[in-house]
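Format notes (please read before filing issues)

Several people have asked whether sequences and structure tokens are stored in separate files. They are not. Every record keeps both together, in the order shown below: the sequence lines, then the token lines. Line labels are part of the format and must not be stripped during preprocessing.
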Amino acid sequence: MSGHSKWHEIRRKKGVLDQRRGQLFTRLARDITIAAREGGSGDPSMNFRLRLAVDKAKANNMPGENIQRAIDRGLGKTGEAELETIYYEGYGPGGVAILVEAATDNRNRTVSEVRAAFNKNGGSLGESGSVAWMFEQKGLLTINRTPGIDPDEVSLLAIDAGADDIVIDEDSMIIYTEFSNLNAMREALEAQGISVDSAEKVMQPKTMLQLDEKETLSALRLMEKLEELDDVQKVYSNLDVSQELAEKFAAEA
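Then the structure lines:
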């Protein structure tokens, strides 16, 4: 399973996604703010990235006033400091590549916190370009496997619509496509009556790295510490995690 989808599955099983709703809303708001600023429009129908961010916020029950406030900040209407997206690159235990996406209004604070997390958890922050070449930008769609969803049928529809990779687990389907094709893929599936739970931009590793149990669990702990940082939006890696070790880590307190 791709690093991103496996990591999301582990976090979901640990209950982290629901426990930290306040932090989730902060991250969703930052996504909206950056999308509005970089897209130059506060209208989701005219700004595809903003549409993705707003749809994700609504799916997580974020209040409408919070969404509008985040859009206004992106358009410079609130007087708040401007947010920028920064990627930090580094290595974790066993040499696993880790890419950290942050949204910040204070670069010095963020890099200090990210470096400390790496250093305290068996990793090291690298130079720009040290691991980014190991990842490529993709569009990711998630479909919940509700009754009536035939994974084989959905897979065929997705392939026809330009899917690059399809991952099927016990309760969802993860579909990867070129980011430029994400909206067309979503519309094609929805036109066939397939409900898309989420659609987003991700960084997918080109190749995966397998480590022993001790290094795998240590790398997962580092990723967890990084994702707990206030300024961090997402954490990606090329770590190949077996289902057994994913379950073991998810069971940790």
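For reference, the curators noted about this record: The chain has a mean pLDDT of 88. The chain has ten helices and eight strands.
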